[in-house]
Amino acid sequence: MDELTAQGNDEHIFHLRPQTGWIEVIAGSMFSGKSEELIRRLKRAKIARQKVQVFKPKIDNRYSHDHIVSHSEMRHESSTVETAAELLSKVERGTEVVGIDEGQFFDAELVNVVNELAQRGLRVIVAGLDQDYTGKPFEPMPHLLAIAEYITKTHAICVRCGQTANYSQRIVEVEGRVVVGAADAYEARCRRCFVPHADAPTSHITEAAD
Ligand code: ADP
Ligand code: ZN
Q1: pLDDT tens, position by position, 19-39
Q2: How many domains does the chain have?
Q3: Which ligand is nearest to the CA of 154?
């Protein structure tokens, strides 16, 4: 990356390296506080008067078209995009922080887009589910976890037993990986209480579930 040249208030010319960007990932099960944590970080960036832009995928229109909203009703304004490429095209000059919610609903190109933004010197914060309802890693989140400078794993509370929950249990009979528009279709479960789909890689833990 080119060095910036800045003129001092006297005849000295000094060189500043442009600020380095980085990637932060907030990953965990449903109800684990990913959106709350993302919103908290974005609000602090705004308090610091940084230019912030927030994006979410079009598939996630559950609560609002122009805000990301947590299960606890925290909210932050956002733009809806259909693809990672569209997200990149909407990042404005001067933006310092990019927040992305529901990262698991983006296409694989999100990895390149997030890398590109960090290379440009932006702070990129991605929140998303790390596993689907069967316990399978939910791309592109695992890939993002591998390349991120900073990772936060959030946990919910198991609604069955009160232990730390790392799984999103689907509690309705619906086909397909994604059931949007239905927070009621899932509940947070711990390792013991989670009952994965029979063909899931985590099916070995069914014996431990009651
Ligand atoms: P996520 O983005 O990970 O789905 P949110 O940030 O939207 O999570 O919501 C987290 C909030 O969900 C908690 O602060 C709490 O108010 C609420 N909540 C509902 N059920 C649970 C649960 N089983 N465990 C923890 N928090 C829960
Ligand atoms: Zn449990």
Answers
A1: 799 999 999 999 999 999 999
A2: 1
A3: 1
Give catalytic residue positions: 102
Q: What is the CATH number of the domain that holds 125?
A: 3.40.50.300
User: CB of 30 closer than 6 A to ligand 1?
Assistant: yes
The pLDDT-based confidence of 65 (bands split at 50, 70, 90) is confident
Continuous H helices in the chain = 34-47, 84-90, 110-119, 141-147
Q: Is 166 in the pocket of ligand 1 (CB under 6 A)?
A: no
> How many Å lie between the centroid of ligand 2 and the Cα of residue 30?
14
For residue 91, give both structure tokens. Answer: 């990042």
d(CA 97, CA 46): 9
What value does the CA radius of gyration of the chain take, rounded to a whole number of Å? 19
For ligand 1, what atom is nearest to the CA of residue 69? 7
Task: Answer yes or no: is 115 within a domain.
Answer: yes
State which residues form the domain around 28: 16-156
Residue 208: inside a domain: no
